[in-house]
Design goal:
14% strand, single chain, alpha/beta, globular, 6 strands, 10 helices, six-stranded parallel sheet
């Protein structure tokens, strides 16, 4: 796995380089601003980009804008965004721009390196990885169609939003895989998500969950 890191905090940036290198992963570039990030992606064609949301010069949304631009130029690029805070608009903007091979984690998750590495590998494999804390905080803000879901269905949808498959969800909730399948089917029905070859209903359900 070849990785580009875009993080203006030098300590965190170098720490990520050391940790990922220790796992046998190749960090081909580690930069501190959006412009260098876009150049590095074009030059190295990495498998995954790890990008801070807030970067110079204004430290608002430069990182997320650069990540979206990089995905448009290189659709095959997997992106794992890091943020110090739960920022709903940024999460939904990135997910909506392709809705695969993307992740959104709080920076504190880097300290729990196994979870961070699991999310990175999931994103690199084409999946979606949303931080559980992001899900927990956004959960209290949701209304509308999601009100139709039962408490168990909301639990299943929250785990789907983390990017987990049915087997892992079953293990987390201590229920059978068949029960998870039934809950997922019910979620699709209540959110009026019809089968289609072009759109993943799991991803669309997650987007409905994250959107206000």
């Amino acid at each position: 796995m070849r990785i580009v890191i875009a993080e203006d905090d030098a300590l965190l940036r170098e720490g990520l380089v050391m940790l990922l290198g220790g796992e046998g992963l190749e960090v081909v570039a580690a930069v501190s601003n959006p412009q260098e990030f876009l150049v590095a992606v074009a030059e190295h064609r990495p498998d995954v980009a790890v990008v801070d949301v807030r970067m110079p010069p204004t430290h608002t949304d430069e990182g997320i804008k650069a990540a979206v631009e990089a995905r448009r130029s290189h659709p095959e690029l997997a992106v794992l965004v890091l943020s110090a805070y739960v920022e709903q608009a940024f999460a939904t903007e990135l997910l909506a721009d392709g809705a695969r091979s993307v992740g959104y984690l709080l920076k504190e998750r880097v300290g729990q390196f196994k979870e961070f590495l699991d999310a990175l590998e999931r994103v690199a494999a084409g999946g979606v990885a949303i931080d559980p804390e992001v899900i927990a905080q956004l959960f209290t803000r949701r209304s509308g169609p999601l009100d139709r879901l039962t408490p168990r269905e909301r639990e299943v949808l929250a785990l789907m939003a983390e990017g987990l498959g049915n087997i892992v969800i079953a293990e987390r909730l201590l229920i059978t895989e068949g029960a998870v399948h039934k809950h997922v089917s019910s979620i699709f029905g209540k959110l009026h998500l019809a089968p289609t070859d072009r759109v993943s209903r799991r991803v669309t359900a997650v987007l409905r969950y994250l959107e206000g």
